[in-house]
């Protein structure tokens, strides 16, 4: 006979897995092709296939830029995709500072903008551009984004179209195009990727909070809108900051988890449904302007049928870095 406590635990896990399956069926990861087909939010597909003609000029510009700058120092998209496996859960020899109180020189959203980027996976062989968001951390040469956008981009490629001409590039908010030198680490369970900018480029980094924001904390979430080409052939990123609040946390089986306990916090649920192209963008504490989450997507809350956002708690970023005060030779 199965003990009552064990039976209760098994039943709880079973319902958690059923709950997770329901969530997965209703989730919409915030990646997009330039530009996503306009569909009602509840029907917007995970992988938007179509492009609107208004972005053809920008796509041509990015494809031409990639073809004219085939530097051996910049790995192809296929090489970066392969590094998702070779750099899986790799810990970097750096320390990411604990900045839960923010920074004195960051007082509004405009101070955050220079450190936020758009990442474009440019696929010349099929004439497509897949976009996501990201932001600079540590010394400003490291960029955080979501891994699922790489998997979305590779779905557009057949084995015959894998070539060295496909590239991933970073578009800054002042219109500069920067190559990616390497994929430094892929945190598999967290859906996070850390990239290093080419030629030792540095952007203003964002402060990261290592502690989960309590429920009802006021947030500012980065909301990507589009990238367009100015008359001077400079890429221009349109975006906004949306007010939101922390609704709850969820664990690996989709069950509700509590901050400040030993619960594993896999997802941070918040009140703003993320837009396509926002994946990898920062969610900051409205008061401190420190990053408390990384945009991942949105889902329909099956209890009230409202679409809400879900994000990766920023504490997961620290899994890719050394702990402060630990010796260098510690295995």
From TrEMBL:
<dbReference type="Pfam" id="PF13365">
    <property type="entry name" value="Trypsin_2"/>
</dbReference>
<protein>
    <submittedName>
        <fullName>Uncharacterized protein</fullName>
    </submittedName>
</protein>
<dbReference type="InterPro" id="IPR009003">
    <property type="entry name" value="Peptidase_S1_PA"/>
</dbReference>
């Amino acid at each position: 006979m199965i003990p009552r406590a064990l039976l209760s635990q098994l039943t709880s896990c079973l319902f958690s897995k059923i709950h997770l399956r329901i969530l997965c069926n209703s989730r919409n990861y915030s990646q997009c092709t330039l530009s996503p087909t306009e569909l009602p939010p509840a029907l917007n597909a995970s992988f938007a296939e179509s492009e609107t003609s208004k972005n053809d000029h920008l796509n041509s510009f990015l494809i031409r830029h990639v073809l004219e700058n085939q530097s051996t120092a910049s790995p192809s998209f296929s090489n970066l995709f392969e590094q998702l496996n070779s750099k899986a859960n790799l810990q970097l020899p750096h320390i990411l500072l604990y900045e839960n109180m923010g920074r004195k020189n960051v007082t509004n959203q405009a101070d955050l903008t220079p450190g936020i980027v758009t990442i474009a996976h440019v696929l010349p062989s099929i004439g497509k551009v897949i976009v996501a968001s990201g932001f600079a951390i540590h010394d400003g040469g490291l960029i955080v984004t979501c891994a699922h956008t790489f998997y979305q981009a590779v779905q557009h490629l057949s084995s015959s179209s894998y070539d060295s001409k496909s590239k991933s590039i970073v578009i800054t908010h002042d219109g500069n195009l920067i190559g990616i030198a390497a994929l430094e680490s892929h945190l598999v369970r967290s859906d996070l990727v850390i990239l290093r900018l080419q030629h030792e480029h540095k952007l203003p980094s964002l402060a990261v909070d290592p502690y989960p924001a309590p429920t009802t904390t006021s947030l500012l979430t980065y909301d990507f809108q589009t990238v367009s080409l100015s008359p001077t052939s400079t890429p221009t990123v349109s975006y906004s900051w949306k007010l939101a609040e922390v609704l709850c946390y969820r664990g690996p089986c989709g069950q509700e988890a509590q901050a400040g306990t030993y619960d594993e916090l896999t997802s941070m649920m918040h009140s703003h449904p993320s837009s396509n192209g926002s994946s990898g963008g920062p969610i900051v504490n409205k008061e401190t302007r420190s990053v408390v989450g990384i945009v991942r997507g949105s889902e329909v809350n099956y209890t009230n049928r409202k679409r809400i956002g879900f994000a990766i708690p920023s504490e997961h970023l620290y899994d890719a870095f050394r702990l402060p005060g630990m010796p260098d030779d510690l295995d």
